[in-house]
Amino acid sequence: GAGVSQSPSNKVTEKGKDVELRCDPISGHTALYWYRQRLGQGLEFLIYFQGNSAPDKSGLPSDRFSAERTGESVSTLTIQRTQQEDSAVYLCASSPRTGGQETQYFGPGTRLLVL
Amino acid sequence: GDSVTQMEGPVTLSEEAFLTINCTYTATGYPSLFWYVQYPGEGLQLLLKATKADDKGSNKGFEATYRKETTSFHLEKGSVQVSDSAVYFCALSRPEYGNKLVFGAGTILRVKS
User: Fold this and answer.
1) Region A19-35 average pLDDT
2) Which of A103, A36, A5 has the alpha carbon at shortest distance from B50?
3) Does residue B97 sit in helix, strand or coil?
4) Whether residue A2 has pLDDT greater than 90
5) Between the CA of residue B109 and those of A45, A108, B102, what are the distances in Å?
6) A102 has a pLDDT exceeding 80
7) Would you say the C-alpha torsion A52, A56, A61, A62 has a positive or negative sign?
8) Phi and psi for B25 in degrees, rounded to 5?
9) How far apart are CA A24 and CA A17, in angstroms?
């Protein structure tokens, strides 16, 4: 079946602009995660959604970052007033649920470059 | 907080050499441990996992054993191939924290023919 998809695959923007990144999880997966991978570094957790529960936003680096999810489907990550340090690959992952040790399936990522 | 430390790369090996990539973790309780791999031009994918102490995860000839006494989860393969060239990430998660993954910095593996 279809895997996790993300769009756009690449985004170049100017400092100060807002950007919106999209994630389509695997159908039926109730848990959705966003991570960030800056050059030469490991992945950092940003936010996760589980069904209709309140999202865990503990990894968001600043109030310029926000994310939404419609039910158990699409999620968007929005970065307002982008800064150069926001340049990174943004990865989305989904899993069937968060109880137990479910595998997270990753999308191909969105590579963001802030000039 | 929880953290994962893995050996710095790049690691360069000849084909058929033995591979070890070290990984240690810091976490309270009983995390699950993972190795993810990112092949050139591809997305991140799970290589293997172990959910409790002394468990051994294995896949594609790779193995890692969950050692609670040394808080380690070292990745090994007896004979690497050029196709194993990739970036390898060690990670942990805990269900009480929604299973969000905590990753190490990644280790680049290059295998020469």
Assistant:
1) 94
2) A103
3) helix
4) no
5) 24, 20, 21
6) no
7) positive
8) -135, 160
9) 24
SS3 A82: coil
The token pair at A76 is: 């968007």
Nearest residue of B to residue A4 by CA position?
B43
Read off the tokens for B92.
């942990």
Q: Nearest Cα to B33, choosing from B1, B59, B66?
A: B66
* Distance (Å) from the alpha carbon of A26 to chain B's nearest alpha carbon: 14
Give the pair of three-digit tokens for residue B51.
Answer: 């959910």
Q: CB distance from B57 to chain A under 8 Å?
A: no
A34 confidence band (pLDDT: 50, 70, 90): very high
What pLDDT was estimated at residue A99? Answer: 57
**Does the structure show a pLDDT above 90 at B41?**
no
Q: What's the whole-number mean pLDDT along residues B45-67?
A: 96
Q: Round to whole Å and give the CA distance between A49 and A54.
A: 7
Take residue A87 and report the two structure tokens written for it.
Answer: 């340049």
Instruction: Tell me if B49 and A106 make a contact (CB, 8 A cut-off).
Output: no
Q: Is the pLDDT of residue B44 over 70?
A: yes
